[in-house]
């Protein structure tokens, strides 16, 4: 099968590698190089770099609506376009260019968590289960029929970063397997069933901790936002970044109240949570207990206002 691959971040790399191994990848679509970091260094995407290493032609259009890029895509004569975290909407006129259409690996059990950050929202919402879905792209956001869903139970130790890395590897095999089934006419798709939920792109403002929430909810959010955009709070006028926090059975602390000892606890509306790592603005990460030395009668801002 002749496949055009569309993807951008590192999480898409395992899928590209799997398709190169199992199929014929004739070209790659990815986002254009963009400024990264404080120095705003123009940087190629992870998929761009990997495609160059694999000697696969790369296209980096700023839009798929331009007639020139549409003609270039058609010139590859793809049987299918495989999509993993590409980050760009596909216009209607391109959907029918490949004979098998555009096939997307999505990191959720659709229709739950359609959108850009499904793993982050699944963990932050306290879901007990997530997974990966391979579906046919149609007009609309992640609305197409599903070929295959692979489920994975969530635990209180899961963070978005670790889980995405795991699902990227298992999903790569799943996507390749579905494309093989499509090629030989053995794949069957089913309409999505159930009420959809949505996972829009996250910003730093979304990751502010609100200490008047229950401990389990705060823990889930801190793990869902890790490592990006990263949970944060305020201590007076100082912004403090937080690593994943764990719910405890310890009570007696007011929301936001900090108790420092062998461990660092923060009060919530239920029991306390335990901090793991902390970084104040412009400073490196450090163990929470080292950071908290010398803190007396301190409390984080409860949160919930504007950033």
UniProtKB/TrEMBL annotation:
GO molecular function: methionyl-tRNA formyltransferase activity
EC id: 2.1.2.9
Binding residues annotated for (6S)-5,6,7,8-tetrahydrofolate, in chain numbering: 108-111
Record keywords, A-Z: Protein biosynthesis, Transferase
Domain spans labelled Formyl transferase C-terminal: 202-294
Gene3D superfamilies hit by this protein: 3.40.50.12230
InterPro entries assigned: Fmt, Formyl_trans_C, Formyl_transf_N, Formyl_transf_N_sf, Formyl_transferase-like_C_sf, Met-tRNA-FMT_C, Met-tRNA-FMT_N
Keyword Cytoplasm: no
Record's function text: Attaches a formyl group to the free amino group of methionyl-tRNA(fMet). The formyl group appears to play a dual role in the initiator identity of N-formylmethionyl-tRNA by promoting its recognition by IF2 and preventing the misappropriation of this tRNA by the elongation apparatus.
Record-stated family: Belongs to the Fmt family.
PANTHER family: METHIONYL-TRNA FORMYLTRANSFERASE, METHIONYL-TRNA FORMYLTRANSFERASE, MITOCHONDRIAL
Official protein name in the record: Methionyl-tRNA formyltransferase
């Amino acid at each position: 099968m002749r496949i055009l691959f569309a993807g951008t971040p590192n999480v898409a790399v395992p899928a590209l590698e799997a398709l190169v191994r199992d199929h014929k990848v004739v070209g790659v679509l990815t986002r254009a190089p963009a400024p990264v970091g404080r120095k705003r260094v123009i940087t190629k995407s992870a998929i761009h770099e990997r495609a160059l290493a694999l000697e696969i032609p790369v296209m980096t259009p700023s839009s798929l609506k331009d007639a020139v890029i549409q003609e270039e895509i058609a010139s590859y004569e793809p049987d299918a376009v495989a999509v993993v975290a590409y980050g760009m909407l596909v216009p209607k006129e391109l959907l029918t260019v490949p004979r098998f259409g555009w096939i997307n690996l999505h990191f959720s059990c659709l229709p739950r968590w359609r959108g850009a950050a499904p793993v982050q929202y699944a963990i932050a919402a306290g879901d007990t289960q997530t997974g990966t879905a391979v579906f046919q792209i149609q007009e609309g956001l992640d609305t197409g029929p599903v070929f295959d869903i692979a489920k994975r139970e969530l635990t209180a130790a899961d963070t978005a970063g670790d889980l995405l890395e795991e699902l990227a590897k298992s999903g790569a095999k799943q996507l390749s397997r579905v494309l093989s089934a499509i090629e030989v006419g053995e794949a069957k798709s089913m309409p999505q069933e159930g009420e959809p939920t949505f996972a829009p792109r996250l910003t730093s403002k979304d990751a502010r901790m609100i200490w008047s929430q229950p401990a389990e909810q705060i823990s889930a959010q801190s793990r869902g936002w890790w490592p990006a955009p990263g949970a944060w709070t305020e201590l007076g006028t100082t912004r403090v970044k937080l690593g994943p926090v764990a719910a405890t059975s310890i009570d007696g602390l007011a929301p936001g109240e900090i108790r420092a000892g062998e461990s660092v606890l923060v009060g919530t509306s239920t029991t306390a949570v335990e901090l793991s790592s902390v970084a104040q603005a412009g400073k490196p990460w450090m163990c929470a207990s080292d950071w908290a030395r010398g803190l007396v009668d301190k409390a984080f801002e409860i949160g919930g206002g504007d950033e």
